[in-house]
Amino acid sequence: MARPKPPAHMITCPDLYGHDHEFAPESIRFRPAAYGVLCHNHQVLLSQSRFSEKWDLPGGGIEPWETLADGLAREFLEETGITVSVQRFLEMQENFIAFFSHPYHSLRFYYTVKLLAPDVTLAPDAHELLDLRWWPTEALPAGHMNDYEVRIIQMACQEPE
Predict the structure, then answer these.
(1) 23 DSSP β-pair partners
(2) What is the pTM of this model?
(3) What gap in Å lies between CA 52 and CA 121, rounded to an integer?
(4) Structural domain boundaries in the chain
(5) CATH 3.90.79.10 is right for the domain spanning 35-89+106-157
(6) Using H for helix, E for strand and C for coil, what is the string for 55-121?
(7) Band of pLDDT at residue 153, cut at 50, 70 and 90
(8) What is the sign, positive or negative, of the torsion defined by CA atoms of 118, 122, 123, 124?
(9) CA triple 139-68-95, angle to 5 deg
(10) Distance CA 134, CA 57 (A)
């Protein structure tokens, strides 16, 4: 069977600020990423992106040689200073996005994660984050988050810790 050909039309990719950009299909790259929902004492850990200023879940892009779980544990540690174990797969979100002037077909995998040590000291990555904070699950900054992440957090944090 012949390899499928890209469409003849441009692909629309919104950037981190919600502005749409058009890209040739051949220029779009796959970007698998994994994000972790850490619920602890009726709170969830959220990071504020330096790039978009939105609050989201710790995590990020996975290297081609990593499993999703290994990449998530690495990203979580890099961004937060916290060592976690990856637990249960929650869902996957798919979209197109442009950041750093590059178009991506983004596949975002969400998991619950668990603390490996009872006492944690937050150590936010200053290159990527403006802030790192525990939020009560009933007081999420929903107006400054992606709607689907609010729903994922509410679903994940209803379960016993």
Answers:
(1) 11
(2) 0.92
(3) 25
(4) 35-89+106-157
(5) yes
(6) EECCEEECCCCCCHHHHHHHHHHHHHCCCEEEEEEEEEEEEEEEECCEEEEEEEEEEEEEECCCCCC
(7) very high
(8) positive
(9) 65
(10) 11
